[in-house]
Design goal:
The structure is a homotetramer.
Chain A lengths: L19 H20 L10 H5 L23 H20 L5 H31 L22 E4 L2 E5 L15 E5 L2 E4 L5 H9 L11 H10 L7 E4 L2 E6 L2 E4 L11 H11 L6 H7 L9 E7 L25 E5 L15 E3 L8 E2 L3 E2 L1
Parallel strand pairs in A: 8-11
Antiparallel strand pairs in A: 1-4, 2-3, 4-12, 5-6, 6-7, 8-9, 9-10
Helix pairs in contact in A: 1-3, 1-4
Chain lengths: ~375, ~375, ~375, ~375
């Protein structure tokens, strides 16, 4: 958050995005609420009102500020939220200094850290959207590298029919929605080793992909018409050349980089136009060791649903993932704004099919 | 449509429902457009304007009346649509009288008949909704039997882990979305032989099921709050007793009959409250021979997606099913308003998760 | 209503318009409710439920069908509403046959007849809108004369500064909002003897009148932008020629006829563009004897407000006019669809400034 | 703006209100655009992009930021807007130091100063609304005096029938909409010397004023129902006692102070309930010397329309007032947040009839 002006901390963009100030307060509140209040004797809550401001969506934890009001948070002032952070950080250090912390407490701390990493990514995506909506294209960081070029030739990875295992296994952190590891039967399939590039997306556009309903879902076409979608988010044409708004400011479109900021509807239409399809999440995970991934979140043909035998967290954290398992599509991989160390093969990201503000791209599968 | 007044043919209810007059014109247009125009030499289209009125959603067949304008169809008059039907029926008889009709033509005729059966069911559901919204609860047919009581004890059917085959096989008609038949691996599971009853639904209500967000999806809870949902559609309390609007008019709620007119969100919340879950469509199909089904469409835990290797119809009929494979949940079974002979174990019905105007219910699964 | 098909009786168009069936029931209900129930001993209400259907906006008379639901009235059937009318007509004849009817009763009967005349006009305007929204331009009456050509030269009528009296005086029926007659002081002004024609409106359009915000109210410009208004209602260009939808069907635009179906916003913008203005209602009434009027309702520069000393009707009829005295502009004159004998110089019609479905035009004033 | 945190400068509340930062930039831009660019040779515009940000509604001055986007202005940073102000102030001082400034230039400077005063008042009303919507009732200034108690007895001022003159006359600044001074004929009337108090408003509430449609305009009642209005804006009941949110924070309601933050609809309903009425603006101005006024803007029964012979400003300032003369009601007087010296008897304020965020109250008239 270093490059931000104080006012930037209130930057809002759209219903699904939150201002930086809120992300800061919310991640702090998460440690206080899920760990310190329960685990540290005599811990004094910094300010009882903060629960109202910084609870995101936990119904069991009481009333909260409506999501669309988050950018109205002119008070508490930023300085006070920084104090809040220092206060909670100090208490966390006290807690960590204790000997014999229970497994369950360590698990919650690990969850809090992973939660914070998710918000680090969300901060960048939300703030990019907020900047992108302001006039005159403000710059976040002139060196920010969003678009590395794909290297090596495109190839089809072929996997045979058979029983595969997917889901998290072994040690290491994972969210509840990645478990349990379980068997799936997959027919033989092929999956591309590479992401679709801006170059390929331009071919789709030039072939009239955005004008022809035959490639689109019915809901997707209605969305495209209503929102007048004609290109990926952040693209604009200036004097006949495609420009791309990035965290480094407005740039010429890099044709060899993977396409990003597309919705599921657009990804699916592209695959239809190619006569191919998106992979399912099971296919993706089965093939992941052969793939070049991590630059873009990749839309899959799988709806976000519980794995067989799924068990949500106990307590208020039950609401972390399970209640979102409807109306969303699974994305696999990670993106250039995902914190280092936060990605893994079993990770299940999920968004509504019309969302584009994340760094979302696609790869193709066939058969 | 016998019990209808002429004005009833324009009855409208909601965005997703169509007036009887439109169903009549649309099913007729389907035969004319998909069969007669292509297969009968020298067939004269009844009225070239009718394509505009009666095309439902086929983008490749040109402009059409917006869905929400269907109830504005005061012209053409009903009498003219009846003439249209007679004209098309006569032409269909001419076609059927021919010898040596190609397989492909017979397939389209079978599709037209199944399409008509789907609209017979839709007519009843749509018209029930239209009547239900009018003041003073008009009656469609005083003898209409919506609510037969479940018989015999509830039991859990147990199926072992293993590879199962689902999807349509053998002879007989099926829609493109039921194929191809394919293998799925299922963990061991149990599924109830019976549908959930009104009695059980009342228990959920009395336990505060509609007031407690912990049982609900996030989207489901938002929907419940916004629409102020407190009971299944068509239920109302009069002088302390639950009444139920049916095609036979307003009736006392039958407690032993299966619940109906609930959304996926409600079905899922009920299952959460029970500590159980909805079956997946693969589980349902694997177990269907042990089940008592056919009274209600049953929500499953499966999103409506293509089977591996799915091939849509060729030509304009491509739009029949495939373009709807997003944002919807699969329902299995059939209901009291499904035409006789139209149900089969591989049938995949699908609706958005908030829809309630269909005769939708649920059964539970566990493990 | 002779040319209507039965389905036409349910024709709906927009929020402000009602279907023919409703107009029929409502005017009948008005006689029953305001006269028969109070004045005829032992009068039996035809059906107590009809009050719910046919009460327009009288809060003091109980619950009523929402305005936007009026077109859902498939039941009661039209035949029953015709029976209702015959029943009420017969009772009215019984009442009129009585000797010694009180002045107050005669006043209410006169109000009922004037109310019916208002709905005769509304029926034609509403039904025109309903037909106009259907595909393929259905015809109401091929002989209906909407557009008579203005004759004689345009002239400016000059009136001197001074005290004038406006409002109804003398015998004859008038609505409560036309009284009391009262003095107003007017500066000297000039008013045109003629309405603005289609020819003059085309000049405004060709001069970019619809594209230039400088002629428009702020609210008017926002409305024009949002609704994408580019010409009067019912105009459409076909192969380079302006067509006009009328009750006689689609016709070539008659350039010498007075313009119609324009909003107050458009009328005001036209006057601004001309460097002139609309007359106030007091100016219009002061000058009416010199004017050629009656073909179009004429927008004035006066907001619809009570005259000094205004007294609304007593009882439920209090709601007839007074509660609408905000947010509307006064129109003076009458139009080609106003029943013969219903027009008079003191008549105050009123609509919201964006309404165009009435036969509305304008004349100019200056100084 | 002294008590504001930096983030407060982005505080938003509702469509009609703007954040402090925008008010600051806009009033500065007004001096630059309407005066410096035209009157100071070689004046360099501070930043050509600022016109896009800070143009309020002048269509003739080019594209501008949409009103609802004003709170997204995280960039330019506040510090830069302060620089802008200093830059423009310095240039204004240079201009004022010149000898022989033309009358027209002095007029524009006077307009700029009055414009700034209007925004000083708007800043307080907008910022109160923004604070009022935040949780936990933040305080602007603990000493801010909103509610002085009325003194002396209520009396009726009686004025006779006759010709009166209204509108601005003589020297001193006035806006274009206050001219020309002109004659109006008024019947005899009575007007109260005092504003209606909170005490009287509570009587209206206790008499069911907000529940009984008979006192309300049709549009007013629809508004009341839709918005669920049950008391003036900023009132809330805590433990059985009425609280009032003010710029000094949450306070116990002062019963003897004049009511404020009511819409025209509410004011009119109150008058109907009393069997009296609101004064017209002509009555108010004719009687103003006998009145106690200045604590609240007072709703009148007059629509905001041009005076006879009204001439708007020349050039872009034409849009200052004239284009708003529709759909609004006139308010007379001034309020506790009006800058000293900005009030005068001929001042015409105007708002839409449902607006409540201004310090609006009422006095009654009769006859």
């Amino acid at each position: 958050m270093e490059p931000l002006s104080i006012e930037d901390y209130l930057a809002r963009s759209s219903f699904e995005a939150s201002p930086p100030k809120w992300h800061l307060g919310h991640t702090t509140w998460f440690f206080e609420t899920f760990i310190l209040k329960n685990q540290l004797n005599q811990y004094q809550v910094f300010d009882p009102k903060f629960g109202y401001y910084f609870n995101s969506y936990y119904e069991s934890l009481g009333d909260r500020l409506a999501r669309e009001e988050r950018s109205s948070l002119t008070r508490p002032a930023l300085a006070l939220i920084h104090d809040y952070r220092k206060y909670v950080d100090a208490a966390m250090m006290d807690l960590l200094a204790k000997e014999g912390l229970k497994e369950e407490v360590l698990d919650f701390i690990e969850l809090g850290l992973n939660h914070e990493q998710q918000h680090q990514e969300l901060f960048l995506t939300d703030f990019k959207k907020a900047l992108g909506q302001q006039a005159h294209a403000p710059v976040y960081d002139p060196q920010f590298p969003e678009d590395e070029v794909l290297e090596g030739p495109q190839k089809w990875i072929e996997l045979p029919e058979g029983l595969y295992e997917i889901g998290h296994s072994g040690a290491g952190f994972h969210f509840d929605n990645e478990a349990p590891r379980h068997k799936v039967f997959l027919p033989a399939f092929a999956i591309s080793n590479q992401l679709i590039t801006n170059e390929e997306w331009l071919e789709f556009m030039e072939a009239g992909g955005y004008e022809n309903p035959q490639w689109w879902h019915s809901d997707g076409w209605a969305w495209r018409q209503k929102e007048n979608i004609e290109a990926p988010l952040y693209w604009s044409k200036q004097e006949g050349r495609w420009q791309n708004f990035t965290l480094a400011g407005m740039q010429e479109l890099k044709r060899e980089a993977p396409v990003k900021h597309i919705s599921y509807y657009e990804a699916w239409a592209f695959a239809q136009w190619k006569g191919q399809r998106l992979p399912t999440e099971a296919e993706w995970e089965a093939a992941q060791e052969f793939l070049d991934w991590g630059a873009r979140w990749e839309w899959t043909e799988s709806a976000y649903l519980p794995y067989p035998g799924y068990k949500p967290y106990i307590g208020p954290a039950k609401e972390y993932n399970g209640k979102f398992m409807v109306n969303q599509m699974v994305l696999r991989g990670a993106s250039v704004v995902t914190p280092t160390g936060h990605a893994r093969p079993s990770y299940r990201n999920f968004f509504h099919p019309h969302f584009r503000w994340q760094f979302t791209g696609l790869r193709l599968a066939k058969k």
